[in-house]
Design brief:
Elements (H helix, E strand, L loop, with lengths): L1 H41 L15 H54 L8 H32 L7 E5 H10 L2 H6 L5 E3 L6 E5 H18 L5 E7 L2 E9 L30 H11 L3 E7 L2 E9 L2
Parallel strand pairs: 2-4
Antiparallel strand pairs: 1-3, 4-5, 5-7, 6-7
Helix pairs in contact: 2-3, 3-7, 4-6, 6-7
């Protein structure tokens, strides 16, 4: 009988020993986890949490902790990129607004000069330049306001059936004088049959306007404007020769405030093509850019009815 009690006591002691050993392991792992979590918070590191012991559900816990750390790191990286983009955007906006204002202010000072060298004719010329600078500023602010509304989802679209070919031709005709001033005539292609799509009329016009304006500002010559049916899509395509775009720009061409004119001397916000992309997306259309040699082209594909 005594031997039975002794055996039971030994088994009990062994179990207690095992439990204490496991408890010690858990305590060691918890201490290890606390230390590594503190290091992860204090240091900018991509290292993952490791296991001091491999018992029970500790590996599963570490796996979940590492998943959470990876997710938080991705969020942190995205916030850093967005903050950098935000600062760059503010710098670009400030430059774009300040430039025409500074120029207008300078010419206004010349207009107000009492010097006999500033003739009445000169004052009229300066006044016209001031008006042009203010028009530029107004256009920049309009683009910024429109993009902000689109991005915030505050620009309601009225989707209806439109004849894209007719609307494309009407919009293109408004730029007739602009092409005359450039001393060239665009090569225009239009569909021979009605080309009907579902879209917001004003948004479609804005897309075509922005594509043409972008070509006029940044293009050299060889302007090609077309709206054609290709399979199940109506494709708006605007192309022109360029000396300011290379292959590395294509991936960023639709980014807000992106411009290949690093001096920003052409008075653009870099929002025109971003607006094209946003409006196209909201109407279930795809916008893409390509560069073939020195021929830069943008196309927007709308599903046909």
């Amino acid at each position: 009988m005594a031997s039975v009690y002794l055996g039971i006591s030994l088994c009990f002691l062994v179990c207690i020993g095992i439990l204490l050993a496991r408890l010690g392991c858990y305590q060691m792992q918890v201490k290890h986890l606390i230390q590594e979590l503190q290091n992860a918070q204090l240091e900018d590191t991509n290292l993952l949490i490791t296991s001091a012991v491999n018992i029970g559900r500790i590996p599963r816990l570490i796996c979940e902790l590492n998943r959470t750390l990876e997710k938080n790191r991705r969020i942190k990286e995205r916030l850093i990129r967005e903050n950098r983009s935000y600062r760059e955007s503010i710098t670009s906006i400030s430059h774009d607004i300040r430039t025409p204002l500074t120029s207008a202010k300078g010419y206004m000072q010349l207009i107000r000069t009492d010097s006999a060298q500033v003739t009445k004719q000169k004052r009229l010329e300066y006044a016209k330049i001031v008006e042009q600078r203010l028009d530029t500023l107004s256009s920049l602010l309009d683009q910024l306001f429109l993009y902000t509304r689109i991005e915030a989802g505050e620009l309601p679209l009225t989707i209806e059936t439109i004849n894209a070919g007719n609307l494309f031709a009407e919009t293109l005709s408004m730029f007739y004088n602009d092409f005359l001033e450039k001393g060239c005539q665009p090569n225009v292609q239009l569909p021979s049959v009605p080309c009907r799509i579902k879209a917001d009329r004003q948004a479609f016009i804005r897309i075509v306007e922005n594509l043409i304006k972008n070509a006029l500002v940044h293009g050299i010559d060889t302007y090609q404007m077309s709206l054609l049916q290709e399979g199940t899509h109506a494709v708006v395509r605007v192309a022109n020769r360029t000396d300011s775009i290379d292959a590395s720009d294509i991936a960023y061409i639709f980014d807000r405030f992106y411009t290949t004119d690093q001096s920003r001397s052409r008075k653009t916000t870099g929002l025109g093509l971003a607006i094209v992309k946003e409006l196209a997306s909201q109407m279930h259309a795809d916008a893409a850019a390509s560069l073939n040699g020195d021929l830069f082209s943008i196309e927007v594909r709308f599903p046909l009815l």
